[in-house]
Amino acid sequence: DDVVMGGVSSSAIGPDLAGRTCLVWAGKCRTQGGGFTGCRSVALKTPLDLTAFDGISIVCGLESDDEPARRTWKATVRTQNNRGEVVYQASFVPPVASKDPTSKDGFLPAEVRIPWESFRLVRGPVVVPDVPPLSADQCSAVYGLGLIMSRFGPNGPMPDFRDGPFRLALHSYGVYVSNGEGIEPPTTLPRAAMLGDRSSEN
After folding, report:
1. Which of 1, 21, 58, 96 has the smallest CB count inside 10 Å?
2. Mapping DSSP to helix (H, G, I), strand (E, B) and coil, where does residue 87 land?
3. Alpha-helical regions (H) of the chain
4. Contact by Cβ (8 Å): 9, 36
5. Are strands 156-157 and 152-153 parallel, antiparallel or unpaired?
């Protein structure tokens, strides 16, 4: 979160306390001194080969409010074996979770698909100039995935940014293929591939 540069935003991601089979990313994003929050996987010791796929698939639902467009949401793909600021990012708008009185979960998520070519190389919030978009060929070694919510859009700070609390239910974060014929989806990452060097990351 933006506390790394003196901000006061905070967020956490973890199992849903209501017992649903999803993660919940929630917190408060404040514009004082920063204006962004984020979550990401540990740096994978065994990188993922995602060249057979067409992009990132996120099944999620915004449960805190009905104004997702008043924030900038980004998915991240890390193709370098480090924890630096240079990473591929793509903006998306999470669907508002629709209420379903017949569902035990209470909310219905929806899928968002983000093709590789939507991802641009950034340093911090700024696009690195003269670098082509991400391609499947560059996804032979993906070392991490993540999410960012920020007041910084492609044209700078958002004038109508919604400051304050947010809650995003994350039911899956994976990959998709447009055709799907003959492609075996990757399984959930084995624990050995995910273990970081610090217990706080795990």
Report:
1. 21
2. strand
3. 191-194
4. yes
5. antiparallel
Token pair, residue 160, equals: 């109508």
- Is 186 a residue whose pLDDT tops 60? no
Can you tell me the distance from the alpha carbon of 118 to that of 122, in angstroms, rounded to the nearest whole number? 12
DSSP, res 142: B
φ/ψ (deg, to 5) at 32: -65, 115
How far apart CA 163 and CA 127 sit, in angstroms, is 24
Contacts of 73 (CB under 8 A, 6+ apart): 91, 92, 93, 94, 147, 148, 149
Q: Among residues 27, 6, 9, which one has the least CA distance to residue 165?
A: 27
pTM: 0.84
C-alpha dihedral (177, 47, 40, 33), degrees to nearest 10:
-110
Residue 115 CB neighbour total at 10 angstroms? 16
Tell me the chain's radius of gyration from C-alpha atoms. Answer: 17
Q: Which residues pair with 62 in a beta bridge?
A: 96, 168
Collapsing DSSP states into helix, strand and coil, what is residue 164? strand
- For the ranges 75-84, 99-108, 120-129, 166-175, the one whose mean pLDDT is highest: 166-175
Q: How confident is the model at residue 197 (pLDDT cuts 50, 70, 90)?
A: low
The two three-digit tokens of residue 200, written as one number:
């706080």
State the residue for tokens 């217990």.
199
